[in-house]
Amino acid sequence: MVDTMALLRALFRLARKASSPLRLAAPPAGDEVFLDAPDDRLAPALVAAGRGDHGPAAELLSGVRAAAEWENRDRYVLRLAAFARSRAEWLDRWSAADPHDPDVLLVTAQLAVDRAWGSPARAELLRELNPLITAAARADGLDPVPWRIALDHARGSKAGHKYFEELWEAAIRRAPHHYGCHVAALRYLAASWHGSHHACFDFADLAAQDSPADSLIQALPARAALGYLTDGCGPEVPRDRLDAAADRAIALSARFPAADPCPAAIRNKLMYVLVRLERWEDARTQLRLIGPYATSFPWDRDSDDPLGHFLRVREALTTGAPGAPVPAPRRPRTEHGGHVRAGDH
User: Do 203 and 312 belong together in one domain?
Assistant: First the structure.
């Protein structure tokens, strides 16, 4: 088996080859907090899809593809596919009307992967989706998002390291600093060597060092920290490394406007990490920056009611309680543990 460092070196060899002041408001009242709220561009597309009209979704995805807004495209595809899991009529109409459209192929591929992921026969079902993902990738040779889907697919279907490296090379050749592809690689490392959090941190730290200061990849080490803090297995990661990961994400968060739905996912994960680290003042700052935009992940890791859990943590922070209701797992010093869930890291 290829060892951890060999894969890390391969990932980074390929990646390097490709290659206003904030005013903080008080946190909103509980009834003003929204869970997984779409931004102003996605919301009309979801409303129209609910009526069976795929036009706004098609226009949205075509526009961000033309503008090479790959991070937004990735977010929108994930949200549209999630919506289609319960309301797929609009997507079926779109596919029937324009079966070779790169955007409908992409959403269809994401939806198929999402549906297969929760099955006990996940690996087998995912392997059957190869033609669908290949079609999405070939539809637009510049788009990295199909390759992010392919990387997730490779993890779920238990693909070997050599195949994963080939996908990774194709992904970062298109967009060397695409956050979604880096998250997919981080998840693959976590799934391949469960409990090897140092490997995840090595990958995330190198990626952040190689990326621009305003790249979402600056938040990748904090995502590795979140995985470590909630996993409950593997050797200890030094506290200063956890703090450095959080500090990188704090600097990135400060680049975005307050109460903005676009960086909400980054800020919710960062706030969770800061609470785990008992950095209460920094957590309060992120809470104010989050404003009304809570996200299901990572609060659903500790509760079946992520919004309620977010609000309980918020109350503990804003009332000056000495702690917050986020249980800290024990940190065993062994390499052994259970299986990584799909949402880990």
Answer: yes
